[in-house]
Amino acid sequence: MTDRRCDIAVIGGGIVGLASARELLLRHPEMKLLVLEKEPKIAQHQTGHNSGVIHSGIYYAPGSLKARTCVAGKQKLIRYCDEHGIPYNLCGKVIVATDEEELPRLENLYERGRKNGVPGLEMIGPERLREIEPYAVGIRALYSPTTGIVDYEQVSCSFANDVRARDGEILTSHEVRRIEERDGRYYLETPAGTVAARYVISCAGLYADKVAEMSGAPSVPRIVPFRGDYYVLRRDKSHMVRGMIYPVPDPRFPFLGVHFTLRMNGEIWLGPNAVLAFAREGYGRFDVNLPELMDALTYRGFGVLAYKFWRVGFEEMYRDYSKIAFLKALQRYVPDLHLDDLEPGPSGVRAQALGLDGELVDDFVVNHNGRTLHVRNAPSPAATSSLAIAELIADTTERAFGLAG
After folding, report:
1. Topology (CATH level 3) of domain 4-47+153-221+363-401
2. Backbone angles phi, psi at 44, to 5 degrees
3. pLDDT tens digits, 295-353
4. For the chain, which residues make up each domain, given as ranges?
5. How far apart are CA 107 and CA 111, in angstroms?
6. How confident is the model at residue 1, as a pLDDT?
7. ∠ CA 207-211-213 to the nearest 5 degrees?
8. CB distance 329 to 343 below 8 Å
9. Contact of 203 with 159, CB cutoff 8 Å
């Protein structure tokens, strides 16, 4: 028995799914649209576990989807927050080089940022760095004054309100467990009933590959979950960080290294590291889902990655279990930190797409199969980019499915 019928079913109530649903209803108000979210509340995974940074677009290869959607998405997000009274803080960020070997990479970031149209970028020396972040040390830094912070759960709730205001429905506790195509519709089976949809858009995050496979799309690139653990700076030491302090990233990895991030509530988050999660939603060090862990470990692409970067992986794992090692990584940028300044903090899991060749997929991936569209890789900066990604998804949906724009 079919409990619901709709024109479009959006799988996933995270920020990208909600932004996409909102954009589709803005363009097609006559359509019946449902958002299916498996949790009792929206924005409970990547959206609700990230550091809240409004990225400016420094890191991403010019011309890539990440570069285009991050720069445009940031502008749209700021405008949206202004229009809806959502607080944010353009507190600024410094990317700090602490040795000579990092200087060429820092210069490359500066050039990338300029090509991507990031405003106000400035290469600075130690004196200017101390003016911006008095406790930070480095031989040179890249200063991005318009990088900011926001509460993405609050943004997501506002997107959800927009969806409902346009007669879209958000059905929580509706985990899609099976998809069957027949009679020109997709039948999505959930514990709360079956939904029949003409078109399906999947923004399933940590389970993007599994949902794609259910609909008959390829299962590759596969999602491999990487957990990142944070510490929180003691409240009486929060004056030591004014905005954000980041390292110069290793270009071989999509992870940015441990850093210092101001939060909207005044907390300073320290981290994260990046280790293989033992479950796709394994936020604790000892959270294990054996079938999901074996799925990751036996995937050929992960084997290639682990063999190539075993040393880096070991260092990340060691730092995950050693507070002293974590502190040493932080002291490289803020030497005055002490062990008792670090308090236990939250964690997040990044849904990282990984190819069979062991290459971490660096760009966003959006593709379609039949009358389904899949967002296959949308980790950071997807939250910043969400409104621009939503436009991309709506454009692709209209082209692929022949919908009138």
Report:
1. FAD/NAD(P)-binding domain (3.50.50)
2. -95, -5
3. 999 999 999 999 988 888 888 888 888 999 999 999 999 999 999 999 999 999 999 99
4. 4-47+153-221+363-401, 224-235+266-360
5. 6
6. 54
7. 120
8. no
9. no
Q: What's the rounded Cα separation, in Å, for the pair 333 and 41?
A: 38
Q: Is the peptide bond before 251 cis (omega within 30 degrees of 0)?
A: no
128, 129, 393, 341: which is closest to 245 by C-alpha? 129
* Helix orientation angle between 310-321 and 323-331, rounded to the nearest 10 degrees: 110
Beta-carbon neighbour count of residue 101 at 10 Å? 9
Q: How far is CA 219 from CA 74, 213, 304, 353, 384, in A?
A: 31, 5, 18, 11, 27
Strands 222-233 and 342-354: antiparallel
The answer to whether the beta carbons of residues 244 and 399 sit under 8 Å apart is no
Of 232, 246, 1, nearest in space to 142 by CA? 246
Residue position matching structure tokens 């054996």 = 290
